[in-house]
Specification:
The complex is a heterodimer of chains A (about 190) and B (about 290).
Chain A: H1 4-8, H2 16-30, H3 41-58, H4 78-88, H5 92-100, H6 109-122, H7 125-138, H8 143-153, H9 156-161, H10 168-184
Helix pairs in contact in A: 2-3, 4-5, 4-6, 5-6, 6-7, 7-8
Chain B: H1 14-34, H2 45-57, E1 64-69, E2 72-80, H3 84-107, H4 110-128, H5 135-153, H6 159-175, H7 180-204, H8 206-212, H9 217-233, H10 235-250, H11 257-287
Antiparallel strand pairs in B: 1-2
Helix pairs in contact in B: 1-2, 1-3, 1-11, 2-3, 2-7, 2-11, 3-4, 3-5, 5-6, 6-7, 7-10, 7-11, 10-11
Classes of the chains: A mainly alpha (about 190), B mainly alpha (about 290).
Chain lengths: ~190, ~290
Amino acid sequence: MKDPYEVLGISRGASEEEIKKAYRELAKKYHPDNYVNSPLADLAAEKMKEINEAYDTVMKDVQSGGFGTNGSESTGSFDFVEIRNLINERNFYEADVRLNSVPSERRNAEWHYLKGCVFVGRGWYFEASKFFETACRLDPNNEEYRNAFNNINQSSENLNKRDSSGTACTICQGLLCADCCCECCGGDLIRCC
Amino acid sequence: MFGSVKPYVPDLYVRENEYFKSVYCGLCRSMGKHTTELSCASLSFDMTFFALVRIWICEEPSEIKMRRCPVHPLKKLPIRTDSEALEYSSYVSAYMTYYKILDDIADERGIKRFFARVARLFAKRPVKKIPVKYSDVGKVIKQDLDRISALEKEKCKNPSEVAEVFGHLLGECISFGLDGDKQAISREIGVHVGKWVYLADAACDLEKDEKSGSYNPFLEAMGLEESQKFIKSGLDGVLSMELVSALAAFDLGPSGGECAGCISNILTKGMRYTLAENLNKTKKKEKK
């Protein structure tokens, strides 16, 4: 087994806070949800296991927080329950065949949403976003459809997030904010501004 | 591939930038050595990325020397010494150039076809120099490019379907000859970058294709006006999904070092930034 400290990327004298922080960052990075549609899911799971074991070893008395996969709730109409199950089982081919056999007058918002899910499973994000968009248009109040659409549209935020942790800039921003707050209450944190 | 896979330089460390340049120059030199000096004309940032991934996944040690090169005779530049990854990238580059030209001869008309015929004369020799053990790579490239042409002729209405083929091409090429995790990781990166490149190119060529009446997946899928709207609002999200997937694979590979730094920069910032720039450029041209 690898050195658990090395796995977590921390030094031997690391405090509990540091260990938790390192673990949280790694867990976020290799979380199964990030590899849902990836053939590397096994590899990621292995890595995750390694991290979990390392964390357990390092923090013997602290129990690691488990990861509940957010199972999608089947709130759909009767017709689509089976198709939802197929999608959950990642049987996209069968799900697509069944979706295509639905007559066009019965293709409602949920149908478009499920079709989008099938496309996400295949990695066809352009088509997926188009179907999610239609689902949202047909049923603007449905949170599930809206979330799926936003997931694709806002995926670039995941890229921005990757390297914005604790740079000098955010520290300055924090200080300036704190200063403004103080000034509001009549005090002053930074005298020159 | 048209040169949008490159780093966002302001965010690179100076040592990473030096490293990137040394690979770029090293690849040029390697191409000169293995596939004739002529092939250096087809050197591109995309192929440099290809070489970077091969170097990174194989964890090749870096050996950089200060040398002069014929293109910049006055200054000594950091150049990576020839290695397996660079040699392999040269061969892939030669294949890609050659089959792309054959494709153009088949698809283009008039003066463009004539130019393609001339270019074929020059692109043939580099391909002949490729050792037999790499001929499978050539077969994959030819097969996939043919498949793309066929889909384009059919006027395929699913952009992802065509992009997938290009993704397959790049994934197979970039992982060729590797095994186990290395193969799986590099293939996954190749697949998603390939899809990204195809869709990004299609978005950049939208107006041009509209005018010339050539195939464009977005035009087929939703017409000009809708496509323009999509490129403004939805394209970034769809393409970022590919980058997120590529980065997920990247996180499973070796970490640390300049090479990983360059790749991470290209995937998180470089590709998006260059695409945004290219889209702006085409818009300005439209206005004129």
